Amino acid sequence: MSLIQPVEHGAVIVRAADAEIVGQSPSTIRLLADSSATGGALSTQRVTLGRGADGATPHHHTASSELFYVLDGEAQILVGERVVTAGEGDLVIVPPNTPHAFGAAPDAGADLLIVITPGVERFDYFRLLGRLGRGEATLEELLEAQERFDNHFLDSPLWRETRAVENDG
After folding, report:
1. What are the tens digits of pLDDT across the range 82-118?
2. Long-range contacts of 10-16 (CB under 8 A, 24+ apart)
3. Residue 99 contacts by C-beta under 8 Å, 6 or more apart in sequence?
């Protein structure tokens, strides 16, 4: 569990060494600050993806915007009905109810800072994804949790086609 240290004026400090990591290299999620630690202002995590790795499948949030800041590498991000490629230093903000997904570009890895605002308790969502990946949870459990985590899955033929073409060469 991340060790959050509240300080003067409600500031939150999360030391890199204290952040919980979900997943295994080269694709990991570093849980930085959940909504409860920020008074509901935001939840944030750092997602590191190996070359061409998928991040999140198409989904939308009904109450929150999602910010993607590329720290390193290159990411493909579905934003509504288009896929943008974002490189180091690029910022993409997706408003509520907008379909989105992300993954590392086919020939690159990606290191992303992701912020959801207003915040939603998300750490348990990422832990659930980790359990699903290890075979300790079911897809049904994930689907049943969509309302709780304001993470509503959807289909995007554009995203499927882009990822299939890009990752097949």
Report:
1. 999 999 999 999 999 999 999 999 999 999 999 999 9
2. 10/39, 12/37, 12/38
3. 58, 59, 60, 78, 80, 81, 154, 156
More confident residue, 6 or 45: 45
CA dihedral 108, 113, 114, 119 (to 10 degrees): 170
pLDDT at 9 over 70: no
- 65-79 and 152-153 beta bridge pairing: unpaired
Please state the φ and ψ torsions of residue 97, each to the nearest 5 degrees: 65, 10
Upstream peptide bond of 6 is cis (omega within 30 degrees of 0): no
DSSP 53-90: -EEEEEEE-SS-EEEEEEEEEEEEEEETTEEEEEETT-
Residue 80: CB partners within 8 Å, gap ≥ 6? 98, 99, 100
pTM of the model: 0.90
How many alpha carbons fall within 13 Å on the CB side of residue 7?
Answer: 6
> CA dist 113 to 24, 46, 87, 123, Å?
17, 5, 13, 15
Instruction: Please give the structure tokens belonging to residue 40.
Output: 């509901």
